[in-house]
Amino acid sequence: MPFDPFEDRNRNNHDVNLTLDKAFVRPAGNGYVTVIPRPVRKGISNFSSNLSLPGMVVNNLLQGRIGEAGQNTLRFTLNTTLGIGGVFDPSTELKLHEAETDFGETLHVWGVPEGAYVELPVVGPSTERDAVGKVVDLFTNPLSYRLPSPEKYYGTGAAVAARLGDRGEYSDTVDSLLYDSADSYAQARLLYLQNRRFELGEEVPERAEIDPFALDTEGF
Q1: 216 lies in some domain
Q2: Which of 130, 157, 182, 193 has a 20 to 30 Å separation from 147 between CA atoms?
Q3: Cα separation of 200 and 133, whole Å?
């Protein structure tokens, strides 16, 4: 059983997130994929992913994974130069894939326990450990200190756009979970914990599922 001592509050937050999804996220996501051509959406998603790489390098180093830090550094360098700021992804063509990570994983490597399950307003499913990680990740990307305004906010805008693209692209799957499930809160909790523990190498999910809260970036 999931460790969920804050279930009443979590369910209230889940209802808030459903309301936000119905009122804004779902229609905006569907509109985004209808209006914006797929190649443009892909370029925005690439740009967003590329800008997140320096923060991942910081976490790679904090985890003692020097090889993965070098891999992400090289990927960032190639995509920023040959990929025109990260809009294109030549690194993947060269089989240089992203070593995805975050500060929540860093805490896991350091031995910090998962803690209770929480669902955060707007952000969505998480755990106490990952919630702390999300906050720290806001400050660990070196680009946030190096880029001037307004350039430093381009990544945030691209991440939001990419997230809307995910919502529209996987609309049927997400709608089925959120609006057709007998208990969408319990189903979302199960999927999040299964996928997150699998990412961290803690367990293998019983079945492959798409976690609508972790398609590219987490939360709504």
Answers
A1: no
A2: 130
A3: 14
Range of the domain at 103: 7-199
pLDDT of residue 203 exceeding 90: no
Identify the band that residue 208 occupies on the pLDDT scale cut at 50, 70 and 90. Answer: very low
Nearest residue to 129 via CA among 115, 111, 141: 115
Is 219 a member of any domain? no
> Are 185 and 178 in contact, with CB atoms under 8 Å apart?
no
User: Could you tell me if 86 and 51 are in contact, meaning their C-beta atoms sit under 8 angstroms apart?
Assistant: yes
The total number of structural domains in the chain stands at 1
Residue 214 counted as domain residue:
no
The answer to whether residue 217 sits within a structural domain is no
Q: Does residue 150 have a cis bond before it (omega within 30 degrees)?
A: yes
Q: What is the pLDDT of residues 115-142, one digit of tens each?
A: 999 999 999 999 999 999 999 998 888 8
Locate 157 and state its tokens. 């805008």
Helix (H) or strand (E) holding 43: helix 38-62
